[in-house]
Every structure is written in structure tokens, then in C-alpha cells.
Amino acid sequence: MGEVYPAVPPSVVPGAARITVPEAEPAEIWVRGHGMDNIRELLEFARSAGLTVGRFRGLLHVAIGRTISKPDGTKISSGITWRELAVLLKGLRYDPALGREAGADPETLSPRDRERYWYAVIALARVDSPETRAEAEQLVAPLKAAGFVVAPTMGMPAPKAKPSARVKPEKKSEKVEEKPKKKK
Predict the structure, then answer these.
(1) Alpha helices in the chain (DSSP H)
(2) Positive or negative, the Cα torsion across 148, 154, 156, 158?
(3) 3-state class of 77 per DSSP?
(4) Which of 40, 79, 132, 172 is the most buried if burial means most Cβ atoms within 10 Å?
(5) What is the pTM of this model?
(6) Per residue in 121-148, pLDDT tens?
(7) Does 3 map to a domain?
(8) Which among 150, 151, 147 is positioned nearest to 72, based on CA atoms?
């Protein structure tokens, strides 16, 4: 291969040495978390509590399409992409046999590249189907007990209002006007 030459000569920005960054306490670094770190906690809890078996597609639906927060209102995630979720599932070493619940056959998908495998599983899971939403609703209570508040999806139908005792007034009878027929 050839050599790489810099296109711009190196230079020192005046005053750059004087810029100071406040040092953070190590405890602060661990308290604050990025969205994927907190989703990682949710996925780890779901696996350790046994919530993934039988409701794996619902877990995918929650991670991708729902807003998750802590009980104090701190937002954990407003949903992550399929690719980010595939990376997390690979990093957490989720059991590839869970792909069967989503309708995937682990023997036919790429066995070596786990990120591609999980991406294909998510694609086959139909995370927006009514069955998947029902599985996700089964996860809401156990996750809330663990400190994860899962908001309802935007596509879910609103609860039906109770019929009110107030009766609507009847419409006044309207006169029907006949329009004259057009002449040919």
C-alpha cells in the first residue's frame, strides 16, 4: 500500500493549552448514563428475571418503540434503532435460540456474525404487530416493579370512555330543499 501524507500542515491553535476541562468525580460518571447504557440495564434485568422467554418480541417492541423512564421521571430512552438493539443483544450475548420466538430459524441465519443475526431476527419479529404489542403489555408491570416505567405506544387505541348520563339533544327537523333539475 502507499504512504499517507497529511493534506494540511500541522499547526498549534493559539490558546489551546489554556483551555481547562473541569474534572468529574468518578461517582458522577457512573451515575449519569447514556441511553444505550440504561437500555442495557433493562435488557440485562429482563434476561436475569426470566422475562424474555415467551415475551421476547414484546421486549424488542419495548426497546424499539416505547419511551422508558425511571419512576422519578428521568428519561432512559425514547426508543432505539434496530441496529443499536442488534449491537446490544450481541454484546449482552443473548441466547440465539430466542430468535425462534420471533419466527427466525437460527440455522438459516448468519451464525458467525451475531450483529447481523440479531438484526435479521428483529426484522422477522414484526415488532409493530398487535400480537407483539400484547406481549409488550405483559412486560409493563414486571418492568415497573423493577424501576422502569414503560409508556404506552402511540399506535395503541385509547381506552373507551364510559357512556355519560347526559343525553344529547335531538336534532331539529330540517327542511329538505329540492334543487331544480338541470335542463339539458
Answers:
(1) 26-31, 35-48, 56-65, 82-91, 114-124, 130-145
(2) positive
(3) strand
(4) 132
(5) 0.64
(6) 999 999 989 999 999 999 999 999 999 9
(7) no
(8) 147
Q: How high is the pLDDT of residue 33?
A: 46
Main-chain dihedrals φ then ψ at residue 69, nearest 5 degrees: -140, 170
Cα–Cα dist 126/131, whole Å:
9
Q: Closest Cα to residue 79, out of 92, 56, 97, 63?
A: 63
Query: Is-contact 83 103, C-beta < 8 A?
Result: no
Residue 15 falls inside a structural domain: no
If one counts the domains in the chain, the total is 1
| pLDDT attached to residue 133 | 92
Spans in the chain with pLDDT lower than 50:
26-33, 35, 158-162, 164
Contacts of 122 (CB under 8 A, 6+ apart): 60, 64, 82, 85, 86, 102
